[in-house]
Specification:
The protein is of the alpha+beta class and 156 residues long. It has one domain (2-154). It contains two helices and eight strands. Strands 1, 2, 3, 4, 5, 6, 7 and 8 form an eight-stranded mixed β-sheet that branches. The longest helix is centred in the first third of the chain and has 52 residues, at 2-53. The protein is rod-shaped, with a radius of gyration of 23 Å. The protein starts with a helix and ends with a strand.
Length: 156
């Protein structure tokens, strides 16, 4: 009888330690992904700022035509919200370009991460101000998660 009690208690202790270890590893991985996704979102915002500052390539099709560079976004009649709200872009970080895409298109990043840039504005301030959001998402055992950073860019 004592042997059965000892084996049962030992099994419970081993099971509890195993559960605690697995839980700890999952939390560490989640924390790592969250930190990495926030860094990539920050890098994405910086890249968009650089594209704006250098008037870099932005390919976006709207009802009135197609843009070729960032400064063309300021001139969209009625603002970007007249075409989409928000408008979705894929960032080419190496070439500092933005390409208009659909809502479900994300840039694939290392480590099972994906990034998307969203740009929108208000018709009243469309010619001088754009709101930029960069979303980095990932999936794990608990589902899909994301980090999102937002900034407002003014015309320079």
């Amino acid at each position: 009888m004592e042997v059965i009690v000892v084996i049962t208690v030992a099994s419970l202790v081993v099971g509890a330690l195993t559960f605690a270890t697995i839980s700890s590893l999952r939390n560490a991985q989640f924390s790592k992904n969250q930190t990495q996704s926030t860094k990539l979102a920050q890098a994405g915002l910086e890249a968009v700022r650089n594209i704006r500052s250098k008037d870099g390539t932005v390919t976006f099709t709207y009802a009135g035509g197609t843009t070729a560079k960032f400064s063309d976004l300021w001139a969209i009649p009625g603002g970007m919200n007249s075409s989409c709200s928000p408008c979705y872009f894929k960032l080419d970080h190496n070439n500092l370009t933005l390409t208009g895409v659909t809502a479900v298109t994300f840039e694939t990043l290392p480590g099972n991460l994906e990034r998307q840039v969203q740009i929108w504005d208000k018709a009243s301030s469309a010619s001088v101000e754009k709101t930029i959001s960069v979303i980095v998402r990932w999936s794990d055992f608990a589902g899909t998660h994301q980090s999102q950073l937002t900034s407002i860019l003014r015309k320079i």
